[in-house]
Amino acid sequence: MSAYKKIPATVITGFLGAGKTSLIRNLIENANGKRLALIINEFGDLGVDGEVLKGCGNENCSEEDIVELANGCICCTVADDFLPTIQALLDRDDRPDHIIVETSGLALPKPLVRAFGWPEVRTQVTVDGVVTVIDGPAYRDGLFASNPDAVQAQREADENLDHESPLEELFEDQLNCADMILLNKSDMLSETEISTAENQLKERVRPSVKLVKTSHGDISAAVLLGIGAAAEDDLDVRKSHHDDTDDHEHDDFDSFVVSLDNPETADELINRLSNAIKAHGILRAKGFIALTDKDMRLVVQAVGNRIQHYFDREWTKDEPQVSRLVIIGEHGLNEAAITQLLKG
What we know:
By secondary structure, this protein is an alpha/beta fold. 33% of the residues lie in helices and 23% in strands.
């Protein structure tokens, strides 16, 4: 790790239709030579967002730099999806210069920021800033989105989301967690309406939060990237309605990566993993395995003592055929003993 400095990550949140995808597309096209990696976690338009961004064809952000997490609220699937995704980006020879995470507008931003405090992430990545995108005309009209029915449908479609909290509370959480707020679609507002919105928003946020008006998500990468907030280190000032009930206390967990010799068979590895899970109470395990006699990549996922494995594709010519597993459990995991069991 000493050879690398921390990679900055920007978390972008905001309700459906606020303009997050337009913002990210503009960033890709005007990245000033920065190599960006995107993690997209928007439920409602997930496939559309991904295809739109992949269609940019920009050298700053190629197709392999865009990862879509479709398995629900990113803050509820940290162990299964977020950590392995971040780890995969960090393992690449061509590490990104900056990571952009687009959350679902209905996911709480604070638990995601807290996820960057996981042991193997915080030494390599820092949250450069949390950016909240607001639909200007909707805010003027006392709404949170231009299409409230679509937001509600999106909310009800995902079982991981909190269906009970009023949208007002979710909106306040987005404001309270922000380092920068973009009042988007400002071209559809009068100067008086912009001034009123800015004054109202300034009263609701921390003094250090920057408020910027934008149209069509158009903002310079030099403004949006490089905030330097290190948001993972000052979570206490980012108040949330869900602070008392938030069960994502990631300091209670340990996580590490085990590099393995390539096994001859899947059964050989699964037996070792099963024994390690039983002996050490591993909560999650996930990774890719290269079998010595197969050209296909083996995906291994474990939740408790339930282990799934399947071949997803052939190894490409330019990727190393190595076997690695992310191991996650409660604080106090015996990394040495687990590693020994997995290596056999």
